[in-house]
Amino acid sequence: MTNGHANAERRSESASLVEVRGLSKEYVQQKPLTREKFVIRAVENANLTIRRGAITGLLGESGSGKSTLVRCIALIEKQTKGEIWFEGVNAADFQAAELSRLRRGVQIIFQDAASALNPRLTAAAIVMEPLEIQRKGTKSQRRERALELLERVGLSAPWEHKKPLEFSGGQRQRLALARALALEPKLLIFDEALSHLDLASQESMLELLARFKDERQLTYLHVSHDLEMLRNIADEIAVMCEGTIVEQKPTTEIFAHPEHSYTQDLLRAMPPLETICQERFAHESP
């Protein structure tokens, strides 16, 4: 077992925040009538690098295994095979206390914030909850921290007293962001978190995320099927098809020199740039 001092030294030397090596995730299911068991391979031999301080895009169609992969990265689910390395250390080498800190350092914002937020709690209580679970500070300090974060994401009073169902979709994502930031993570994962927002709300959210990234030196993993959005925000794009990463490159290279046939098909399916600009102009026009 690697000791804590050695782990700290290796973390400081690693340029990558996360490295996924040969990861596979299988689920055993049963047919309802015959009770016969069968295996679903959601992720198979996937390799992914998330550079520290970068914005990495994870691109793929629905059912390609993106959500399963990020749940493994966040240690919500245990992979069937393979390794996940954080700052140069294999997660399998972390002791219990280190593993707990690691989970706090990776936060996910899901597509449907309404289902991820407790509908019975106020906005302030939702942001305070992870601080209470981790026993961070006094009650007054936790509340002060929650109100500060709500204000930073644009949900100052009287929003602190409202419950999630009283918010719009964009406001719920801002609330989910405030909650995710409460524990000061190193990596934020957005699992299709912007896909259902209208263009104005999406752009406003991206501006907010850019500000937080610079201020807090965060690393982002954006999971999306929207190639145009990833082209605008991502430093690198990893393309996922049928459970595996088929290629990962800097964004400019993905568009200029796509190697895998699946990536080439995705690029061919994109509307021309002039069409995208016309649609955006029409949206912004009064």
Record keyword descriptors for this entry.
about 290 residues; alpha/beta; Rossmann fold; 2 domains; six-stranded mixed sheet; four-stranded antiparallel sheet; 10 strands
Count of DSSP H/I helices: 12
What is the 3D form?
globular
SSE order in H/E notation?
A: HEEEHEEHEHHHHEHEHEEHHH
Structural class, by secondary structure, is alpha/beta
Rg, Å, rounded: 20 Å
CATH topology of the largest domain: Rossmann fold
Q: Describe the largest sheet.
A: 6 strands, mixed
The largest beta-sheet arranges its strands as: 6-7-8-3-9-10
Low-confidence stretches: 8-12, 273-281
State the CATH class of the largest domain.
Alpha Beta
* Number of E-type strands: 10
Distance between the termini: 62 Å
Proportion of beta-strand residues? 25-35%
Tell me the number of structural domains: 2
Q: Give the oligomeric state of the chains in this entry, treating copies of one chain as homo and distinct chains as hetero.
A: single chain
Q: Helical percent range?
A: 40-55%
What name goes with the CATH superfamily of the largest domain? P-loop containing nucleotide triphosphate hydrolases
CATH architecture of the largest domain: 3-Layer(aba) Sandwich
Arithmetic mean pLDDT: 87
Written overview of the protein:
There is one protein chain. The protein has 286 residues and is α/β, with parallel strands linked by helices. The chain has 2 domains: 4-105 and 185-275, Rossmann fold; 118-180, no CATH class. 42% of the residues lie in helices and 25% in strands. The protein has 12 helices and 10 strands. It has helices at residues 4-13, 66-73, 96-104, 113-116, 123-133, 139-152, 169-181, 199-216, 227-233, 251-256, 261-269, 273-284; strands at 16-30, 37-51, 55-59, 81-86, 89-90, 106-110, 187-191, 219-224, 236-241, 244-250. The chain has a 6-stranded mixed sheet, with helices on both faces. A hairpin with a 6-residue loop joins strand 1 and strand 2 (37-51). Helix 5 packs across helix 6, helix 5 runs parallel beside helix 7 and helix 6 packs across helix 7 (169-181). The longest helix is centred in the last third of the chain and has 18 residues, at 199-216. Mean pLDDT is 87; it is low at 8-12 and 273-281.
